[in-house]
Automatic annotation (TrEMBL):
One Pfam short name: NusB
UniProt keyword Transferase, yes or no: yes
Upper classification of the organism: unclassified sequences, metagenomes, ecological metagenomes
Entry's transmembrane regions: none
Keyword check for Methyltransferase: yes
Organism of provenance: freshwater metagenome
Name this protein carries in UniProt: Unannotated protein
SUPFAM superfamilies, sorted: NusB-like (SSF48013), S-adenosyl-L-methionine-dependent methyltransferases (SSF53335)
GO molecular function terms listed in the Swiss-Prot or TrEMBL record: RNA binding; RNA methyltransferase activity
InterPro entries the UniProt entry points to: MeTrfase_RsmB-F_NOP2_cat, MeTrfase_RsmB-F_NOP2_dom, NusB-like_sf, NusB_RsmB_TIM44, RCMT, SAM-dependent_MTases_sf
Length: 389
């Protein structure tokens, strides 16, 4: 190799290392904003990346570092805590988690590179600690004391889903939600997970039908129903979220979609007027944790029960909007029994006149009188759907 070739190779390696350090520093900034300010990772990440100056490849790397460190936070803490004599400051723990994530889950990164660039990205006062602990991790076996630590979920989420789904299905769902979600697009270009697309297809909206979507933002299912030819009233409580519906409807050229600010508990719409009421209810989101990597650490153990109470109240409001012979669709992106079959039991007792329609098949599995789509079935969001007439 000529001197100039060696120089070029050395310069390329140095540039690559500097970019790797920069990507890790961006990741640490995002993780700090999530932990210290309560920012949502998917929202703050795009803002920080836009001002980072990173190229496309390094933006993707920083994104994986953020989401991976958050998803595997409990597992990473176990890996580093074995070599800590006391709890380090939050800023130091974030760096150590970042390094442990690379060592345990990024087989494409050599250990020496993961340690060296993470140390370089760390605040100076924590570089000695970072180097010492991460080198210990490289020399140790990657193993965990129990399944919930390995899967990296709070005990209550693990226990809830094992109880509700059974051990095999629950663990498969939790493993799937530790992977990243691929973007999928409808024929009209709208970005929407296949699970939500399939829900709209199953509703079989007919041209001219009046559809009321009570919790519509950002408008994925509402625009899907409108694209099928329905006249859609798309309501949401927060004006800024209704703006998202307006923006999406305008971009797709859907003049038959009518956004409005409205409280789903008190819709303010003409009773007994809708051919289809879609209640895509607020829920604990236990089926979409791959898309919301920090959500597993935000949701509290009482959330499913608390939200189930709200869901029952929303059902009461939705039923009052049904025209004779109309259909009620209840969907949630969670896998907990209390928010799915538990709400269906409430509907069966309170509204015996509503008959549950035959649940879908294929990747959907029977779930009470409805159906469940587990994340591992087709690598989609987890979803439950019940349709009544």
């Amino acid at each position: 190799m000529s001197p100039s070739t060696r120089d070029n190779a050395a310069n390329a390696a140095a540039t690559s290392e500097m970019e790797g350090v920069a990507a890790r520093r961006v990741a640490l900034e995002v993780l700090a904003r999530v932990e210290d300010e309560g920012a949502y990772s998917n929202l703050i990440l795009s803002k920080v990346l836009d001002g980072s100056g990173l190229g496309q490849q390094d933006r993707g790397f920083a994104t994986d570092l953020v989401y991976g460190s958050l998803r595997h936070q409990r597992a990473c803490d176990h890996l580093i805590d074995r070599f800590l004599s006391s709890d380090p400051p939050p800023a130091a723990r974030r760096v150590l988690r970042l390094g442990a994530y690379q060592l345990a889950y990024r087989e494409d990164i050599p250990d020496y590179a993961a340690v060296g660039t993470t140390v370089e990205a760390a605040p100076k006062r924590f570089r000695g600690l970072t180097n010492a602990v991460l080198r210990q991790v490289t020399r140790s076996k990657i193993e965990f004391p129990d399944e919930q630590t390995e899967l990296s979920y709070p005990d209550w989420i693990y226990e809830q889903l094992v109880t509700d789904l059974g051990h095999e299905r629950a663990v498969a769902a939790l493993r799937n939600m530790n992977s990243s979600a691929e973007a999928t697009h409808r024929a009209d270009g709208y970005t929407q997970d296949l699970a939500s697309q399939w829900v709209v297809e199953l509703l079989a909206v007919q041209p001219g039908e009046l559809v009321i979507d009570l919790c519509a933002a950002p408008g994925g299912k509402a625009t899907g129903c409108a694209a099928a030819g329905g006249v859609v009233i798309a309501a949401d409580l927060q004006p800024h979220r209704v703006d998202l519906i307006v923006e999406n409807a305008s971009r797709l050229g859907l003049e038959n979609l009518l956004p409005m600010v409205g409280d789903a508990l008190h819709p303010g719409l003409r009773p007994h007027s809708a051919d289809l009421v879609l209640l895509d209810a607020p829920c604990s989101g236990l089926g979409v944790l791959r898309r919301r990597p920090d959500a597993r650490w935000r949701i509290d153990s009482q959330a499913p029960q608390r939200l189930a109470s709200l869901q029952r109240d929303l059902v009461d409001a939705a039923v009052g909007l049904l025209a004779p012979g109309g259909r009620l669709a209840y969907s949630v992106c969670t896998l907990s029994a209390v928010e799915t079959t538990g709400v269906d039991e409430y509907i069966q007792q309170r509204y015996p006149e509503l008959e549950a329609l035959s649940p879908p098949t294929g990747p959907w599995q029977p779930w009470g009188r409805g159906a469940i789509l587990l994340p591992q079935a087709e690598d989609t969001d987890g979803m439950c759907l019940f349709v009544y007439s």
